[in-house]
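Family c-likeg-protein-coupled receptor protein
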Amino acid sequence: MSAPGAGQAPPSGPPYLPQVAQLGGLPTPLPDDAICAVFLALFVAGAATNMTIFQVNRRRGHKFVFSVLLFGFCMARIMAMVMRIVWASRPTNISIAIAANIFTAAGVLLLFVINLLFAQRILRAYFPRVGWRRDVTLVFRFGLASVAALLVMLITTTVHSFFTLDMSARDKERKVQLFAGTYLAVLAFLPLPIVGGTVLAARHQRNKRRQQRGATTTDGYDDDDDDDDDDDDEHSSSKIEKFGTGSMKTKVILVLFTSALLALGAGFRVGVNFSPRPITNPGWYHHKACYYCFNFVIEIIVLYTYTIVRFDRRFHVPDGSSAPGHYVNGVAPGAGDDIDQDQSSAGEEKLGGVSRGSNGEADGDIVDSGEAGMVPHGTKITSMDLETPKKLSGLDREEDSMGGLNKGVNMDIGEGGRPRGDSVGSTEKDEVVG
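Tokens:
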């Protein structure tokens, strides 16, 4: 097969065919149609699976937007496959070539974003005080925002390069594309040092605590000090705020594995751009096999790895997490106010010797005189006893609890702690004094 544009004069008007070899070359019905059809089916299945998982989780109140991102990635890849199949049938249609190149370059950015956010979650799990710092959060947000800016740069320069023959403009556009490609390759590689460094630092701290504990046990401390050291070590190790299902080790391996694959693909693509060849003499790295393997094969592996291991469960965190402790304890709006109210009313509830339900009413359980301090053992407290403290105003609270109650009430307590007959005073016949 001759290279595209070989022996042919350039078209009289824009868009113009590039004069340098492109990764993958010019598609042809054979073998590109068959290869693209296989990838098309795989991406359609991936899109349907992830959208189904998202909808099922949404109905269950399980929010996980990364399933939607994988769905969007699959849709971009479906469009890229369709455009390449159409381009194979219409090789002289440069507009279709532009669309195919844009969808091919844009889709993988979503995978970069997913891995970067997963790396951030792992950092926050191992080192909550560091991961939730504002400056660290801003760095990650800048990385995410830069992806959108680079996407705009790539689309603009790619489209414009097809509509100009000015060599100076094309040279500047190529520099922009090289910068954007290098930046994205670094971004794809970034989760590797983040996650790897986080795990190594956590292991270093754990080993340091073990060494300190070993030193204290050999300095002649008693057994009580050893027990305290063990408790402190367990408390320190429990500071890892685990999230989702499965072990943290599995999460780390998943992010490292997928990031290594994505970095390999991004590095290969930018390396090809740094080694331009004329369109009539492409290099081995422009071959179709390299194009499909370093693009779509890698992405299929990442897509189905996350889907099969149910990353929607493994990497899920409580919705609204914004501070240390939220990964483990969850996010409960107004929980602090509720705790203060519970603490302030604890004394009043103990005065009545009864626990209240979630609606504030008495549960009506049998209470123990040891807890209430004013009610005989086995006496049942009803909600009417807690309506107002005035019903207890006739009792002398300074006296013994049993003696004080015997002055105002004549009650015959039978077996099982229940009163026999109507032995309660006439003024409160339907009530049992609390």
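Residues 1-9, 220-238, 335-411, 421-434 have pLDDT under 50 and may be disordered.
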